[in-house]
Amino acid sequence: MRKSIIILIALLGVGWVVWNLHTVLLQLPDDADQGPVYRIMFFHIPAWFSAGIAVFIALGSSIGYLITKNLKYDAVALATTEAAVAFLTIGLVTGSIWGRISWGIWWTWDARLTSALVCWLLYAGYLVLRTAIEEPSQRARISAVLQIFAFADIPIVWYSIEWFRTQHPGPVLRGSGEMDGAMKAAVYANWPALMLVAAAFVLLRLRQEEVKREIDSLRRIVHAG
Amino acid sequence: MAAAAVAVRDLWKFFGDYPALREITFDVEPGTCLALLGRNGAGKTTLLRLLAGFSHPGRGEVRILGAGVRAPETRARLGVLGHGISLYEELSASENLHLFGSLFDLPDPARAVDEWLERVGLSRVRDGLVREFSRGMRQRLAIARAFLHGPSLVLLDEPFTSLDDRAIAVLQQVIREGLAAGCTVIMSTHQIREAMELATHAALLARGRLLYHGPRAPEMLADPGWLYAQYGEA
Amino acid sequence: MTFWRHTWTVLTKDLRAELRTKEAVNASFSFAITILLLISFAFDPTEEMTREFSGGLLWIVFAFAAVLILNRSYARELPNDCLDALIASPAPASAIFLGKALSNLFLLLAVEAVCFPVFGIFYNVRWIGQFWPLLLVVVLGTWGLTVVGTMFSALTVNIRLREVMLPLLLYTTMIPGLLASMQLTVHLLAGEPLSTAFVWLRFLIGFDVIFTALALTFVDTVLVG
Amino acid sequence: MDQRNIEFMFYGLASAWVILGVYALTLLTRERKIDAELKRLRGLVENREETK
Fold first, then answer.
1. Which of A42, A49, B12, B141 is most solvent-facing, going by the fewest CB within 10 Å?
2. Is D46 on the interface with A (CB under 8 A)?
């Protein structure tokens, strides 16, 4: 894909987020219990959603690689996993800052935080493993299998830690309606905006992987001759 | 017409985007011995590893004795001798052979092991650990391991490299007997003269392509460099 | 039937080769005892509090000891290209894997069997009364550790930094399994019956089943390029 | 208390932007590096073909 299109998508995403920020900061009232700090949620929640979607795509393309042996799928898995780790980091950091005000502490070993941290570790491990393998086909195959293992582990981690301890507020978007309609709408409005940013990241990373493949074959020519 | 021992069709192997093997197509008839020639990096080992089922081709197909490479019945009829000796240092000669005898589902592993230890001249040290063996003894044991289950196709990667005289004699003898019994042999090699004495066919690989495949011509025996010179690889 | 015979062949081969040199077992055992000792410096073992969570510490010791055995599992096939000969044989990769995993299980259980009495003496914990339920939990937890670890041993066998990558991947993936084992062990060492912690037992069995199935499915993909 | 509340809201929002920015920056530096490498290798290959 052309670089200019990627930049356009990125600018569109960023612009949309800024526009949403304007709504969130100026038009929505403070939360009755939490005060202004709850506005972090407009980043926090969509960041988790985006990371979740990225992880699903990464799993799909890893399986796709194992079936087709087409390195494009491997590049997609890598690009989406990297974006997922970036958004997981946002989720963890914003959540921690929010917790400092709402709970009075930066970090608590509550179920969701702990599960999120474990997910982050699993996917960071995937990225580290990739750096340790030189040969592209071998790297693609082995990391695809690890991707499947990591994904399978997420629900197990989730349940184990859920049983172990819980402090995080329950799902705020469904059920008892802890969140006001206008606020909910703002969360949902910020989600596609962040997804656009994520898409720009992924597309840029994919382009880089393509260039890297070209570099690899050029190297072969240089060395062979 | 009987099925070819090895049928290779439009075979490609990629490492990343780099094609290590390109559109390789050839047949090997049962009971023949093919010498696979080519310089370092020409793709000889890659081709042998594909035939042995250590890795999957990027494109194309390999049929061995009419079946797929990874099929259990193919594996049972395949003997492989690679760069390493594939023996366990901590186990004794007979334990090593027993291990592979039982992995290959031999009906009477004990007898096969005894026979082969006798053939490669290691009966007296059957209970010695491989760790304590000399180079030549290890190589002879490796030959026994590769031929233990009476394979109908044998793949040898540089078999004569770094063998001592006695091991070369044993290997040549074993290959001759195998060929006489209808076994098919494919070997990659640098030592053209030793290989050419055994080979009925020859193939030349260069940069992943098959340049020549055909019967061994008398010129090849007389002048080891002949084939290379013919195809501008000298 | 043939599958199990191949499994048995590889199992006995690995055990025999290991017990001739005892390289991995000795290292693993001395490491385990050292860590037990070190932990007793970090937490005062005579305190009631320490005794309460010491069951959890035990699993940290086991996890550390396991890596030394698991790292050797596939690496021991490398020196003479033995792995090639195993793959070339008619034995399926899953049977070879299972044989290796069982051999690791056996070795690790042996190390643990020595650790338990030492632990009981150092930390003044009585565990004899709970012998059978404890044995069940230890076997299940250790099986999870070995099946995931043997898989990752296969995954990392041909890559740089093998010794570092294995624990990095193993520990994050093992978190739910270790958590369940720790919960159960602490519970049992407190003198409670197994029946009151049944959910954790079921969870641990589920963990073992899922990862055994995944490993048996994908080990062929990992080893045959 | 309210002051701190607002302050932390800004920290939270800023941290999200910072993380996005840092990731974008690593992507861009990598972009520059591989572009340079590509140019270098292309030059090498062209040179080689000219001399042939």
1. B12
2. no
